[in-house]
Amino acid sequence: QRKAMNGSFQMQHKKFIKIIVFGIAICALGLRICYVNITAEHPHVETYQMNEWVELNGNFQEESAEETTGYAVRVNSARLLTYKEFIEQYNGNIDCLPESARPIGIVDVEVSVKNTANLNGWLSLYYYMLTSADHTFTLYLNSTLFELAAPSSNGELNIRIKPNSEYTFHIPYGYFSERIDIARMDTKYNMVVSHYPVRKECNVLLREN
Hints:
By secondary structure, this protein is of the alpha+beta class. Helices cover about 30% and strands about 30% of the residues. It has 4 helices and 11 strands; from the N terminus they run αβββαββββαββαββ. The chain is extended. The N and C termini lie far apart (about 90 Å).
C-alpha cells in the first residue's frame, strides 16, 4: 500500500512539474511576443490634405524599383455614386460588369499626378487603397471601372507620365456593403499613396453629388 501511495505521489509530482514547465513556457512566449511588438520598427506615417501635393520622394507601394522620386500626387475631389450613376457618368455599358460583381456604391476619386524629371519611375495604382477614417474597412480599385473612367490608361495600373507633365484621372473604388445608407454616411477616408519606407496618406472627404 505504501508503494502504491509513493507511486501515486510521484505521478502527481511529475504532473505538477509538467504544469509548471508548461506555464513558464507560455509566459516566456507571451513575453517574447510583447518584446517583438514593442521593439518592431513601425513605418512612419505622414498625413496630407486634399488639394495638397504629396511629394513621393522615392517612397513606394510595393518595391523600390518604382523609383518615384520626382513624382507627386494630389487628391482633388471624391464623391459616392451608385453603379448606375457611375456608368451614366462615363457613358459606359451597364453590362460591363455581371450583376454578381457590381458594387452597391462607388467612391469616385479624382487624382492628379505630376512628374518633374523622372525618366524611369512609375506609380503602382493597384496599391492605392482607400481606408475608412476609423480603419474599419478598406476599399480597392476596380480595374474594369478604372478603364472606363480613365480610357487613356488602357487599363494599365502602373502609371508613367513624361517629365514636366501632369495627368488627371479618376479612380473608382467599389463598395459592396448592402448598407448603402450607412455608406453614404461614411464621408471621410484616407488614400494610401505610398507604403514604404514612409506611409503617406491623403485625407479624402466625399462631397455631395
